[in-house]
From TrEMBL:
NCBIfam families linked: PRK01130.1
Known EC number: 5.1.3.9
HAMAP family membership: ManNAc6P_epimer
Record's protein name: Putative N-acetylmannosamine-6-phosphate 2-epimerase
Recorded coiled-coil stretches: none
Highest taxon, organism lineage: Bacteria
Functional summary from the UniProt entry: Converts N-acetylmannosamine-6-phosphate (ManNAc-6-P) to N-acetylglucosamine-6-phosphate (GlcNAc-6-P).
Catalytic activity entry: an N-acyl-D-glucosamine 6-phosphate = an N-acyl-D-mannosamine 6-phosphate
Organism whose genome encodes this protein: Cohnella hongkongensis
Source lineage: Bacteria, Bacillati, Bacillota, Bacilli, Bacillales
The family this protein is said to belong to: Belongs to the NanE family.
Amino acid sequence: MTRNLIEEIAGGLIVSCQALEGEPLYGPEFMAAMAVAAAEGGAAAIRANTPQDVKAIKRACDLPMIGLYKKHYPDSDVYITPTLREAQEIAEAGAEFVALDATSLPRPDGRSLAELIASIRETCPQVRIVADVSTFEEGVAAMKLGVDLVSTTLSGYTPHSLQQEEPDIELVRRLAALREVPVLAEGRIWTVEQGAACLLAGAHAVVVGTAITRPQEITRRFAGAIRSASQREFAQ
């Protein structure tokens, strides 16, 4: 029987296990260990970057995988699975979902988003497509192109999207209200309360990365808060 992976992740937590080159936990073995820890904690799925990390995690963990491949091209600001080549490598690595930049920014190979999605459907029919968007209009456009999921991943990371420190819950609410395609809430979710608020706004599932899997950032927040509290105490 074919698994309905979209239904399997409904109402769940998707943990983004990513580390960039130069960071302390960079490397497939560390991300695989992080994914196993996330699975033990009750994660419904994993989101991961690069074919190497996807392969390592799939060997260690049987949760559904949203794979992406961050790659920078000199002629474009699109870097999340920017071309068909990256999508194919992620699919070949074993990811059940491939996430890609579905913003209105120009793509590096001159292809339109519609052309990229059509090419992925043709060459990688086994994968489901997750559209990472930054605005309501981009989400609507991606839905019309037939993607399987829309994620608010890039809100606040494009020049034309809402710039704020909090999760873009209003974007989640507006997209989910369309009832066209399941919506993932992602981006700047730091607390369980924020995650719950996203679900209440209509999110199909919630993606959390930095607040769980980047200890240097978690430590920085704690250290800053404690330092500030200490300074206030000594100032009294």
